[in-house]
Write a structure and sequence with these properties.
By secondary structure, the protein is mainly beta. Helices cover 3% and strands 44% of the residues. The chain has 3 helices and 49 strands.
Length: 584
Amino acid sequence: VKIKITDGSSSNWCSGSLVNNTAQDYTPYVLTANHCGYSNYNLWIFYFNNESQECTNATSAPINQTVTGSSLRASGSGNDFMLLELSGMVPENYEPHFCGWDRAAEGATNGVLLHHPYGLPKKISTFTQTLTSTTYGAGYITNGHWLIYWVETANGHGCSAPGSSGASLFNQNGRVVGTLTGGYSKCTEDPGPSGPDLAGKFSVSWDHSQNGSLNSNKLQPWLDPISSNVMSIDGIDYGQINANFYATPTNIMEGETVVFTDISIGAPSSWNWSFPGGTPNASNAQNPTITYNTAGTYNVSLTVSDGTNNDTHTKTNYITVLDPESCIFLHYPLIGTETLYTAGTSGYVSGNNSYGDLAKADYFQSVGAKEIPKILVHLGAVDGTNGNVQFAVWANNGGVPGSVIGSKTITMATLSAAFSGAGTPYTVEFDQPISVNGNFFAGFFTSTGSDFAVTSNTAGDAPNTAWEMWNNGTWHSYTTTWQNIPSLTQSIFPEVCPFGVNIKEISKSNITIYPNPASNDVTIVSPFDNYKVVVYNNLGQVVEQTESKDSQIIIDVSSYQNGIYNFVVISGTEQINRKISIIK
């Protein structure tokens, strides 16, 4: 977009771009530079399709496709960005494109700047050197800009000039990653076009605290109105429509409900859902809630239409409904196409790599009070026989992996002997089932020796469930760590079972649990020299668990609320359940 900055008596030029938002509703947001102007936004004129096939002395570029007037939505002086909303929709006959964007912190490897130097028809400057971070000057956010070196192409050497300010910098995937502030490149004067330019980082404009804490100081509330937290989106054109959706949760028990959310691209006006196995089995609501009463794995389809165009999207084996009395492998089968991504200078995204990642895990939604006897994984790479891999289950700590609640270590030599190529299934059986109740994480600590990895689906096949522990011990979702592949599910499939499935009941005469009722302490006398005690409340929630090698153990119940509790003693493949009333 070419922008005429005017106060009614004088004017100058800047550049900008229409940008997409996660609602994909064609809101006419224009991204430009903060220094382009500070008032009279209602008088600014925005020129569309001011471009020509000729590179010099262009005379055929249209100047009659305009929108006059805008309102300021957000701006930041710390890295020089401004977001405007035009006073009206861009006419359809202008064939506008709403540009995609990428807020990842990594520098693009190559790309272009689309700009209007001196207010001329659109020019393209190209860079082929990976962007690096820099600071524009005093008063600006440290490392809030990209440093750019333009190269020569068949049509001349890239450069910038007055009027280029505010132009969008696009990465190798055609998404906006920055907004031009200025620099040392000159199109027609010394020192010439070889000097570097600087563009404010889109990732900093997103929500950096030094720009301010209000919605008017950041892009995030305007460009992500549905709070999706995505790292990037593609651009769209008028009339483009693509069906898409997600569900919460995707693993449920019989009789529970699932909420479906429409995230289709474009501006659909009608929705036609199909829910095999669901009640109801069809819906025309945009965001329906569906109940599933019968155990199984079910497809979901959505067809959207804007009255002219339509599109259908189907997710296969998307909803898993659990029978309370049976076991099931969560996330199995993998949604989408199975693959293995490499990472950095060596290694793998979903395993050991040159970044030194310490662990990989996936997030699993609530399954109630269950036990995990084993984890099925699909091996992606086993690059030697040195070292070990510790497979683990982590507690959920506010949506982030917390403490390890169970694990099993397998040697790389054992994994290597089983490996027959990417996608090889391998089952890790825990010495004792691991008790979970609600959301949890499952995965592995990366190999202590040779490189190891599991496979994953292809980026974008499903909502992200993958997490990793960095070499500093902190956990991060893939949505915030991997540029271009932020959304993955790894081939990690924990088996969840109702408590006690396939476990032999201990003879009640061999164990004593008393008193009943109790108020302060419960004593357990056991013939076993190694056993676990798990206490559940009447909601099936784990309130306490401990392990002992003593023949007698005393459980302090003085802090328990009044009610009936299920005390479960487990030793190897044997168990006993005893209901104890707590009365104060």
